């Protein structure tokens, strides 16, 4: 099957009938839901597990991406919950991720660790798939409003950022912050899969607004958008 959706925070199933398939990889076993729409099979992988039981820094990104590659996936849409440090992107907005800045500290970020795999320096001129992004924009015209595109700063988590960190991330060109897109996007690129990440703004970043956000804000913003977003993914994939 050539197409997959990776669900971020708040997106643990896809609202379609599915069966679960267990895929063994050299990095570990991965459970992938397989949905079938008009004869087209699409894989769905909830990044944090179905019960949101895996924190961002402990996700087995290499197993996840290798499992998708092993079942033949070439095109991936993912969703990412993000905090905003750009006044133009308010909680509830949908933003296309156009680039990333990596502030992770302690996770395997490559398949290429020398030895059998060799040493490969993957090109990052365009980490995200322009075609998938354009198709998403095109297909979303009648249902959701996309606020724009933004640079994603990936932190190690699981803690949120300090206000001084957010000040720095803004200064260096970040628009939104999350904890998962690195190394996911990098590993997709290393495996030659087209990867697109759609950001759902769930909160203002620390220090941007004085009120503290809650998990309710996070799930609320995702809830508001997830059905439309998955329908658009499916529409693009069925074309
Ligand atoms: N920071 C980091 N990750 C996040 C945030 C945030 O404010 N919101 C959702 N994921």
Short note summarizing the structure:
By secondary structure, the protein is an alpha/beta fold. The chain is built from five helices and nine strands, in the order E-E-E-E-H-E-E-H-E-H-E-H-E-H. The protein has a five-stranded mixed barrel.
Give structural notes.
- Purine nucleoside phosphorylase involved in purine salvage.
- The record marks 161, 215 as: Important for substrate specificity.
- One of its GO terms (molecular function) is glycosyltransferase activity.
- Its EC number is 2.4.2.1.
- It catalyses: a purine D-ribonucleoside + phosphate = a purine nucleobase + alpha-D-ribose 1-phosphate.
- By secondary structure, the chain is α/β, with parallel strands linked by helices.
- 27% of the residues lie in helices and 31% in strands.
- The chain is built from 5 helices and 9 strands; from the N terminus they run ββββαββαβαβαβα.
- The chain has helices at residues 61-70, 130-140, 163-171, 181-190, 215-238, and strands at residues 3-7, 18-25, 28-37, 40-46, 75-84, 94-103, 146-155, 176-178, 194-204.
- Strands 5-8-7-6-9 form a 5-stranded mixed β-barrel.
- Strand 3 (28-37) and strand 4 (40-46) form a beta hairpin.
- Helix 1 packs parallel to helix 4 (181-190) and helix 2 crosses helix 5.
- The mean pLDDT is 93.
- Bound molecules: hypoxanthine.
- Hypoxanthine binds at residues 81-83, 155, 160-161, 177-179, 202-203, 205.
């Amino acid at each position: 099957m050539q197409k997959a959706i990776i669900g971020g925070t708040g997106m643990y199933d896809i609202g379609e009938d599915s069966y679960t398939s267990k895929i063994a990889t050299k990095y570990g076993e991965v459970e992938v839901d397989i949905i079938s729409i008009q004869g087209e099979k699409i894989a769905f992988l909830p990044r944090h597990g179905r019960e949101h039981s895996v924190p961002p820094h402990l996700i087995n990104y290499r197993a996840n991406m290798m499992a998708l590659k092993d079942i033949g996936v070439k095109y991936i849409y993912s969703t990412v919950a993000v905090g905003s440090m750009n006044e133009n992107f308010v909680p509830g907005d949908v933003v296309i991720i156009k680039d990333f800045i990596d502030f992770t500290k302690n996770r395997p970020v490559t398949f290429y660790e020398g030895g059998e795999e060799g040493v490969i320096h993957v090109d990052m001129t365009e980490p995200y798939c322009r075609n998938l992004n354009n198709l998403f924009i095109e297909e979303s015209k009648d249902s959701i409003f996309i606020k724009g595109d933004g640079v994603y700063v990936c932190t190690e988590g699981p803690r949120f950022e300090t206000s001084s960190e957010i000040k720095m991330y803004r200064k260096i060109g970040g628009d939104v912050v999350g904890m998962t897109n690195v190394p996911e996007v990098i590993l997709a690129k290393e495996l030659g899969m087209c990867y697109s990440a759609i950001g759902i703004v769930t909160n203002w970043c620390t220090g941007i607004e004085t009120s503290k956000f809650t998990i309710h804000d996070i799930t609320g913003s995702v809830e508001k958008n997830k059905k439309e977003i998955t329908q658009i993914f499916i529409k693009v994939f069925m074309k």
